[in-house]
């Protein structure tokens, strides 16, 4: 029995070695499992971070949106090319506006436009940018600018079917003070009966046909928009199916959708008028303005807030987002106001109505007015539909 339990020193060494080996293997396995667990957890965290990053997708680029509108038959191919060309012009002007002070582009150009207004240097440059871009698009037949005396027919080599009217740099008097400015445009389908024949018609006949092509009521607009150059560059546009806003991402050089189907609030207690002209206004308009300071149609409630930039694009953009009313009425000095029907009032009214708002001359829709001349001016009121209706009740 004693022989059976006897253990030699060699056996003891072998047992110790075996125990140590088992312990080492066990520890090694545990460490390996722990490392694998850490790797798995790390992989899951990386995957989770990537998944979350993937959820934050970039908005629709303007170029893609234009193609989508073409696919929906809201616009045709030529119209799409015109819109893409306008977006390029806006990018160029945005860059010029940002560098104006550094590049010596502030101040007067030493000339006056057809309305007798002093032109800023950037007025002239922006007008050239718009004209050249539209002409080279090959899809515009007639272009009309606020800065030009008459509409210009595009040569047959470059000519297309669309008529584009525009104010290349609205609010340019604010440039030197770095206040927001903008470009405004409207696009009409050309009248096939008014296409100039460069080979057989005199310059006067060509000009007459250009004027006839341009002088269309706002109801005929097929698209309109504006681009605001401010703390960010924002392009707002409608092709007759809602209003969309795009913000320029300088990192990629593209306008990205940031405002989908903008809707103007039905009412809003903000008014944007130049009250410096109050004494020259009609009695009805004075009564309206006084009523806003006592709560408007809800007499005795909180008075309206005054917000006035002096740049149509800036004031209109705020009104689009927050509601209220913008107005540039006629007065004793300028009975028809100072804003142009074709280049400013009609395009902005088109956008306002597409966003559920209104555009009025004080007595009716701006889009109903048939222009009698290219640089015709009209009183202009736009914004929330209830606010515009309230103003009209004092003007009729």
What percentage of amino acids are in beta strands?
Answer: 15-25%
Helix content: 25-40%
Task: Give the end-to-end Cα distance, rounded to a whole number of Å.
Answer: 128 Å
Strand order of the largest sheet: 4-3-5-6-7-8-9-10
How many individual β-strands? 15
Largest sheet descriptor = 8 strands, mixed
Question: Which spans have pLDDT < 50 for at least 5 consecutive residues?
Answer: 1-18, 46-56
The Cα radius of gyration reads: 33 Å
The arrangement of helices and strands along the chain is: HHHHEEHEEEEHEEEEEHEHEHEEH
Shape: globular
Overall residue-averaged pLDDT value: 83
Tally the helices: what do you get? 10
| Helix vs. strand class | alpha+beta
Keyword list:
alpha+beta; single chain; disordered N terminus; 396 residues; five-stranded mixed beta sheet; 19% strand; eight-stranded mixed beta sheet; 10 helices
């Amino acid at each position: 029995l004693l022989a059976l339990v006897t253990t030699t020193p060699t056996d003891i060494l072998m047992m110790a070695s075996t125990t140590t080996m088992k312990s080492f293997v066990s520890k090694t396995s545990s460490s390996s499992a722990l490392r694998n667990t850490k790797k798995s957890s790390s992989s899951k965290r990386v995957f989770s971070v990537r998944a979350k990053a993937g959820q934050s997708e970039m908005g629709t680029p303007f170029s893609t949106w234009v193609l989508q509108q073409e696919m929906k038959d809201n616009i045709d191919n030529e119209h799409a090319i015109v819109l893409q060309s306008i977006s390029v012009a806006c990018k160029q002007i945005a860059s010029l506006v940002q560098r104006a002070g550094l590049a010596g582009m502030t101040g007067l150009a030493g000339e006056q436009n057809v309305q007798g207004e002093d032109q800023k240097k950037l007025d002239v440059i922006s007008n050239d940018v718009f004209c050249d871009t539209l002409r080279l698009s090959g899809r515009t037949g007639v272009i009309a600018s606020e800065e030009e005396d008459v509409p210009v027919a595009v040569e047959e080599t470059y000519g297309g079917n669309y008529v584009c009217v525009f104010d290349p740099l609205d609010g340019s008097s604010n440039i030197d003070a770095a206040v927001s400015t903008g470009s405004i445009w409207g696009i009409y389908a050309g009248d096939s009966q008014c296409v100039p024949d460069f080979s057989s018609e005199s310059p006067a006949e060509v000009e007459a046909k250009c004027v006839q092509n341009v002088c269309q009521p706002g109801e005929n607009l097929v698209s309109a928009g504006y681009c605001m150059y401010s703390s960010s560059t924002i392009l707002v546009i409608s092709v007759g199916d809602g209003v969309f806003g795009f913000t320029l991402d300088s990192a990629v050089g593209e306008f990205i959708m940031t405002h989908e189907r903008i809707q103007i609030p039905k009412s809003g207690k903000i008014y944007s008028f130049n009250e410096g002209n109050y004494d020259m206004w009609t009695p009805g308009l004075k009564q309206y303005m006084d009523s806003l300071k006592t709560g408007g149609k809800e007499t005795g409630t909180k008075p309206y807030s005054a917000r006035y930039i002096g740049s149509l694009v800036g004031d209109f953009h705020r009104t689009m987002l927050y509601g209220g009313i913008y107005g540039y009425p006629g007065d004793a000095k300028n009975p028809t106001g100072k804003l142009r029907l074709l280049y400013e009032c009609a395009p902005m009214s088109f956008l306002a109505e597409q966003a559920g708002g209104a555009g009025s001359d004080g007595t009716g829709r701006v889009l109903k007015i048939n222009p009698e001349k290219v640089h015709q001016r009209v009183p202009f009121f736009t914004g929330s539909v209830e606010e515009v209706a309230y103003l009209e009740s004092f003007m009729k």
